[in-house]
Each structure stands twice: as structure tokens, then as C-alpha cells.
């Protein structure tokens, strides 16, 4: 009697003890329409550093920096409340490129405004990575269990050289003005842990870790900064399930850290929301001195 292929597949599957969550995205080939969907771009990268001791971020645009060739899609890959995202390839590396289309004003976002707010976004991203490293080190020193497979996305800024691409939405005469925040291309799957002003309580280890991390940032920064809108993409990196944090938002005393910064009162309110559960008790993952 012949065994059906499906039955064989089920038998094989049952013998596999634990299959990790899949990050597979099937490549769908669109039929050619004869219309080019990408633009050739020449880009120059900004030089960004983050001080290991202080977390201070410095962004410089070298006048004679290296110019790389790439391709950027003309069509939007993804979009949020304030930024459009496009696919970008530089050499053999695949990225996403982000620009602002909304900053809370009625006018179109200018090239200089886009550059300014993207620089703030990168500062926030690099600062989050600095704080996360400090948080994880302290948790290990105090033997506190936490979700360790959490990282902050890499990112860098590039400026188009010459005539801006159609994706930039700039006029052809606005040469050397199209700036992008570039990050590695990831799955579109997103896990949200908090909003701009809302911080729902979570009992899982990952949720508790991110809530404790947010409170740690508030305390370690001398109550100058707190992160909000915490979200990440689940990825498999080095064979481990990892959450890659991206697009964090922050609140500061001066309300000048970027889009969505509501100032000092929001910093305090967001920290209180992250440091307590629905009954008002402190989160179990506490890094404060005994």
C-alpha cells in the first residue's frame, strides 16, 4: 500500500523536536511592465561616533567623503505617521532608506528640515544602543535575569550627490540635499511594547525587560531622558531569536530630541508608566541599588 507524500511529511515533522519561528519571506517576482521602478543614486555617508563613556553622539559630513553607487526604489516600501521608507541597495548590501514627509506643520518638509530631524533620529538610535549596553552590563553584574537577545538597529545617514532621486520628493535643482536615514533591511513584522504616551503592562520576560530598560534610562540619564514608542522586529541572528529595536522616540527636558518629544512632564509620566503595573507596584526587574 502506497503512503501518501503528505503522511510522510507529517511523520518527518513529528520527529523534529523544536522548529524555531520562521523569518522566511517568499520572494514574489512582479511581471515586468517595462517601467523602471528604481533610480541610480550616488551617496555620501556621514561620519557618526558615540562616546563610550558619555554616550554623546557626534555627526559630521566629510567634504571629501567616499561616494558609493546604489539603487533606490521609486515606490514606497513602508510608511508610518511621519516617515516614508524605500528599499535601497548599496553594492551587495540591502537596506531601507527613511525620510520625513510630516513634522507637524502644514507646509511640505524641506530638505534642511528633513536633514535636521533625521540627524535627531540617528542620535536617538545611537543613544538607545549606548543605554542598552549599559543596562545589560549592569544586569549581568547584579545577576538579574533579563531578556538578553535584544539589540538596537544599526543606522547611518547618507546624502545623495547631485540631482535628487524621485523618491526624495525634492526638486531637480536641489542638488546634494537629499538626506536619508539608512538601516539594514528587515522583516515587516513588528512587535510594539509602548506608544508615545501609553505604556501597557506586560507580564512576559521581554516586556518586563524593556519596561525596566526604559526606567533605567530615566534614572541613569539623571531624569533627563526617557524612551517611548518602543518597538522592534523579531529576527534570527546568529541562530538566536532576537528583537531588533528601531525608531525609538524620546522625551527630554528641552523637548528637542526629535518628533514626538513632549518635554519634561511627559518624561516623568512615561517613566511612572513603565515602572509600575496595573496595581501600582514596581516591576520585578529592578536594577536599583538594594
Description:
Residues 9-17 and 276-284 have low confidence and may be disordered. The N and C termini lie far apart (70 Å). This protein is of the alpha+beta class. Strands 1-4-6-7-10-9 form a 6-stranded antiparallel beta barrel. A 4-stranded mixed beta sheet has the order 8-14-13-11. Helices cover 24% and strands 27% of the residues. Helix 3 (205-220) runs antiparallel to helix 4 (264-274). A hairpin with a 3-residue loop joins strand 5 and strand 6 (83-90). The longest helix is centred in the middle third of the chain and has 31 residues, at 111-141. It contains 4 helices and 15 strands. It has one domain (38-252): Phosphorylase Kinase, domain 1 (2-Layer Sandwich), CATH 3.30.200. Residues 53-290 form the Alpha-type protein kinase domain. Residues 1-21, 251-290 are annotated as: Disordered. This is Alpha-type protein kinase domain-containing protein. Keywords: Kinase, Serine/threonine-protein kinase, Transferase. GO terms for molecular function: ATP binding; protein serine/threonine kinase activity.
Q: What is the name of the CATH topology?
A: Phosphorylase Kinase, domain 1
In one word, what is the shape? globular
Structural class: alpha+beta
Helix/strand order, N-terminal first: HEEEEEEEHEEEEHEEEEH
CATH H-level superfamily title? Phosphorylase Kinase, domain 1
In the CATH hierarchy, what is the class? Alpha Beta
What number is the mean pLDDT?
84
Number of DSSP helices? 4
Radius of gyration: 22 Å
User: Major sheet, described briefly?
Assistant: 6 strands, antiparallel, barrel
Assign a percent range to the helix content.
Answer: 10-25%
How are the strands ordered across the major sheet?
Answer: 1-4-6-7-10-9
Protein name: Alpha-type protein kinase domain-containing protein
Biased composition (Basic and acidic residues): 268-282
Organism: Psilocybe cyanescens
InterPro entries: a-kinase_dom (IPR004166), Kinase-like_dom_sf (IPR011009)
